[in-house]
Amino acid sequence: MQTVDKKPKLSFWQIWNMSFGFLGIQFGFALQGGFMSRIFQTLGAEKDAIPMLWIAAPLTGLLVQPIVGYLSDRTWHPKFGRRKPFFLIGAILSTIALFFAPYSSALWMAAGALWILDASINISMEPFRALVADKLPDSQRSYGFVVQTLIIGIGTWVASNLPWLMTQLGVPNTAATGVVPDSVKFAFAIGAVVLFGSILYTILTTDEYPPEDLEALKRENEESKGILNGFKEIFKNISGMPKVMKQLGVVQFFSWFAFFTMWSFATPAITEHIFKATDTASQAYNDAADSVGNYLGTYGLVSMFFALILAFVTSKIKINRKLLHMSSLIAGGLGFILIYFISEPWMLHLCFALVGIAWASILSMPYAMLSSAVNPKQMGVYMGIFNMFIVIPQIVAALGGINFMYKLLFGEEVVYTMVLAGCSLIIAGLSNLFITNRNATHDI
C-alpha cells in the first residue's frame, strides 16, 4: 500500500464511487434501527424487554469487526483487492437477512434475524472505513469521511421513510395481531435490493492500491498462520492502541449509548408520549409508528445537508475536528432532551434536525481523527478494534443500562429514555476536550 505522502488526491466523484456502497449499508442500518423495535413490539415484546432483544447485534460487532479488519489488512487479490472481497461477502449475506427479517413469526426468530443482519452488515462496513484511509492522503481524510457521511445521510432519510411511502402508495400498514404489516415487508425488500446494488457499484467502479511490498505481506501471512496467532495479534493491537484512540473511545462510548437508546426506544417513547398510542394492533399505533420512521428520517436528511456543507468546507479550508465534533454532539443532545418538552408532533422534526447534526459528525470526525493517528498498515484492524467503543456501550445499554439509568435518574415514563440519550450525547461532546493530539484534531 502506498504511503500517505505518495497518495494522489482524488476527485469528488472518485471518493463518491468508493463510498457509494455505504448507501446500501445505511439502508440496512436505518431499517434495522427504525423498525426492528416495531417488529419486536408487533410480535409481543414488552417495552423493557426490547434492549435485550437487540443485544446480539452489538455482541456480534464486538467479535466480527476486529477479525474482519485484521483479515482485510492481510488480504490481497490481484483482481478484487484488499477490502472489496469483504464488501461482496457482507453484501450477499446482508441482502438475504434484510429480506427475510420482517417475515419472522416469533420473537426468537426476529432476534435471530437481527443478529444475522447486523453481523453481515459489519462484514462490509469497517472495510469501507478502512478504504477511505487506504485511498486518501491525510489532507483529504476529513473530506473523504464527510462525503461518506453525505451518502449515509441520503440512505438514512430514504430508508427511514420507506414504510411511510409504502403506506401512501396503498400498501397496508396494519395486519393481524402478531403479524408484521406489508408496508414494512415491502420496505425491507427494497432495502435489500439497494444494499446489494450499491455495494456492487463500489466494487465495479473502485480500484485499490496494491501493497508496497507484496512479498513482505506474503511472509507476514506465512508467519502468522492460524486462528490463535490472529487472535494474539488482535489482542496485542488492543493493548497497544494509541492514546488518541482511547480518548476517542470515551467520546464514542457516550455517543453510541445515546443512539442505541434512540433505536431501541424511539418508537415506544414517541408513540406513547406524543401520539398516546399503545395498542400495537391498532390503526393509531401503526400510523404513529410510520410517523416515527418519518421523524427519524429527518435526522438522516439533516445529516446529509450538514455533510454537504462540511464537504464544501473541508475541500476548501482546514478544520478543527475536535471543536466541530464537540459542538455537534452537544446540539444533538439538546435535540433528544427537547422531545420530552414538545407538545406537537411536527416539533419532532426540529428535535431530530439537531440529532442529525450530531449523526453527521459521529460518522465522520472520529474516523478522520483516528486515521491520522494509527499505522496505515494496520488501518483495517484498528478500524475494527475502534468499533469496540461503539458496541460496548450498546451491550451495556442492552443488559439493563438504559432501563436502570432512566428510571433511576428521571422516572418511569418511557419518554425519559430520550432525555437519557440527550444527557449521554452532551457528555460525549464535552469528552472531546481531553483529546490533545494535534495531528488527530486538525487537518494537515
Description:
- The protein has 444 residues and is mainly α.
- The chain has one domain: Growth Hormone, Chain: A (Up-down Bundle).
- The protein is built from 19 helices and no strands.
- It has helices at 12-19, 21-42, 50-54, 56-73, 84-100, 107-135, 141-168, 182-205, 214-223, 227-239, 243-273, 283-316, 321-341, 347-362, 365-371, 379-386, 388-409, 416-431, 438-441.
- Helix 4 (56-73) runs antiparallel to helix 17, helix 11 runs parallel beside helix 13 (321-341) and helix 17 (388-409) packs across helix 18 (416-431).
- The protein is globular.
- The model is unreliable at 1-5 (pLDDT under 50).
> DSSP helix count?
19
The shape is: globular
Terminal CA distance reads: 20 Å
Q: State the major sheet.
A: none
Oligomer: single chain
Helical percent range? over 70%
CATH superfamily: MFS general substrate transporter like domains
Give the DSSP E fraction (strand runs of 2 or more residues).
Answer: under 5%
What is the count of β-strands?
Answer: 0
Named CATH architecture: Up-down Bundle
The CATH top-level class label: Mainly Alpha
What's the gyration radius in Å?
A: 21 Å
Q: At the third CATH level, what is the topology name? A: Growth Hormone, Chain: A
Helix/strand order: HHHHHHHHHHHHHHHHHHH
Structural class from helices and strands? mainly alpha
Q: Provide the residue-averaged pLDDT.
A: 83
Low-confidence stretches: 1-5
The number of distinct structural domains comes to 1
